[in-house]
Design a protein that fits this description.
The chain is of the alpha/beta class. Helix content is 39%, strand content 22%. It has 14 helices and 21 strands. The protein binds NADP nicotinamide-adenine-dinucleotide phosphate.
């Protein structure tokens, strides 16, 4: 079986220690990824520190040219890289294509932003002084990314960090490292100076400890679970290491009775089932107002029953496998718990037997009690719990009654209501009559325990810049 290398200081390094990469559609390993320990991550941080000295000095426009080249390389290899994403993550191929497309867009967007790390000149209050506010790259960045959008969520960190003038050591999720290897190949082909971008893999707590404790690493950017986010926060307390955290979510989708039925069903289907429900912004709870409930529920169930489950490489598949056995068991547990608490299972919900891999039939639950597990914890599966509500006030209280605050969806044709509800929801992203909020030029991230900071948009590069004040005494 092919053992994929890491990318360290401009070299491809295959190690003796490696871990299998599993295809979730079969449960079988199809490749291996090299693994290193903390000592070699330390060396990578040193190389990144050396590279930083010259990378930071390049004009933003020149760094942008490198990023455009990486984007072009990804674009040229999009079919093969999309297939790699599907093989290691399981998502339907057309969604992997969309992921590559979004990653390319992020790279081009931050290539342009590299020119715009503006500071400002602040008027002086006393004579003989001048004040500059300047933006400087933070330094070496340790980036940790998850498996659910394995390419684009890594690029969302690497592109703005490089644009800002930082150098990056990326640790992808162990379950999906191969598209990160492909990305590293695109970086290599773009001829970035050695050490500017490096790819590591190994035991996550060890690598994180090195990022946290090594003084050369000036910033950690992490996407993953709130649980691991909390560990990083406590680890960062010792070194006061700056963190950007994109953590878990539990998005409510609220359908008001004045909503356009077809449009809200369409958008709610995407928000729920994209990436087989394994998205941090997946609508984990769907609240439907009583006046539209009897029309929304059957329409949503009908559409769910029509979803085609299968290996993401097969033609016409809407729902792929879950990432692993643990993910599948969690989904089944959430269904059993909801049903035991009085919910009705309208369709799906059973493991697909007779084929290997981690497949579940997409499910719709209705009349789900508010304290069911699926109404509180991330389900990360194609399971849609639907509840009925009566008033705007009631649904806002329900929507906000969670530790999370990443994303929320609102369906209404009433502009006053759209504004009222939008202003009341405790959420970093609010989609109104829209199921896909993510875009390169707007900030992405959560409030409450969904994280700290923002990716994408102007804020995405700001996360890798220090703001510094230069006070000048002048005889003028
Ligand atoms: P996870 O278990 O937290 O893993 C994410 C990354 O953290 C992986 O690279 C993992 O490495 C690493 N990791 C594991 N244990 C660690 C530790 N002790 N210290 C440091 N790093 C550690 O999350 P996941 O299951 O991959 O991803 C799903 C979660 O991510 C969900 O909660 C989802 O909502 C969240 N997410 C959030 C966003 C957002 O933008 N807010 C986007 C996508 C996903 P290994 O793979 O080697 O274990």
């Amino acid at each position: 079986m092919k053992v994929y290398p890491l990318y360290l200081s401009g070299e491809w390094v295959t190690t003796e220690s490696s871990k299998p990469v599993i295809n979730p559609a079969t449960g079988d390993p199809f490749a291996e990824i090299s693994m290193i320990g903390r000592d070699r991550v330390e060396v990578a941080l040193e190389a990144a520190h050396d590279a930083f000295k010259s990378w930071r000095k390049l004009p933003g426009k020149v760094r942008g040219v490198y990023l455009h080249r990486i984007a072009d390389n990804l674009e040229q290899r999009k079919d093969e890289i999309a297939k790699t994403i599907t093989l290691e993550n399981g998502k339907p191929l057309q969604q992997s294509h969309a992921e590559v497309g979004l990653a390319v867009d992020h790279l081009h967007w931050f290539a342009e932003e590299a020119k715009r790390a503006y500071g400002r000149i602040v008027p002086n209050q006393v004579e003989g002084k001048r004040h500059l506010v300047i933006k400087s790259p933070m330094g070496v960045v340790g980036a940790i990314s998850p498996w659910n959008f394995p390419l684009v969520l890594a690029v969302r960190k690497v592109a703005p960090a490089l644009a800002a003038g930082c150098t990056v050591v990326l640790k992808p999720a162990t379950q999906t490292p191969l598209c990160a290897v492909a990305f590293a190949e695109c970086v290599h082909a773009a001829e970035l100076p050695k050490g500017t971008f490096q790819l590591v893999a190994g035991p996550a707590p060890e690598i994180a400890a090195e990022f946290l404790e090594n003084r050369l690493c000036r910033k950690i950017t992490f996407t993953g679970s709130t649980e691991v986010g909390r560990l990083l926060i406590s680890g960062a307390a010792k070194s006061v290491k700056p963190l950007s955290l994109e953590l878990g979510g539990h998005a409510p989708a609220i359908v008001f009775e004045d909503a356009d039925l077809n449009r809200s069903v369409d958008a709610a289907m995407i928000a729920k089932f994209r990436n087989t429900g394994q998205s941090c912004i997946a609508s984990n709870r769907i609240y439907v107002q009583r006046g539209i409930y009897d029309r929304f529920l059957p329409a949503f169930v009908e559409r769910t029953k029509a979803l085609n489950v299968g290996d993401g490489l097969e033609e016409g598949v809407d729902i792929g496998p879950l990432i692993d056995e643990a993910g599948l068991n969690k989904a089944l547990e959430h269904i059993q718990d909801a049903v035991a608490q009085g919910a009705r299972l309208n369709c799906g919900g059973e493991r697909i037997t007779g084929r290997k891999g981690f497949f579940i039939q997409p499910a719709v639950l209705s009349d789900v009690p508010h304290d069911a597990l699926c109404m509180r914890e991330e389900t990360f599966a194609p399971i849609a719990p639907i509840s009925v509500f009566d008033t705007e006030e009631e649904v806002i209280n329900l929507a906000n009654d969670t530790i999370y605050g990443l994303s929320a969806y609102v369906f209404t044709t009433n502009l006053d209501r759209a504004f009222r509800v939008m202003e009341s929801l405790e959420s970093g992203m609010i989609s109104i009559n829209d199921g896909v909020p993510s875009t390169s030029q707007c900030p992405f991230g959560g409030v409450k325990q969904s994280g700290w900071g923002r990716e994408l948009g102007l804020e995405g590069m700001e996360a890798f810049l220090e703001t510094r004040h230069v006070s000048m005494g002048l005889e003028i």
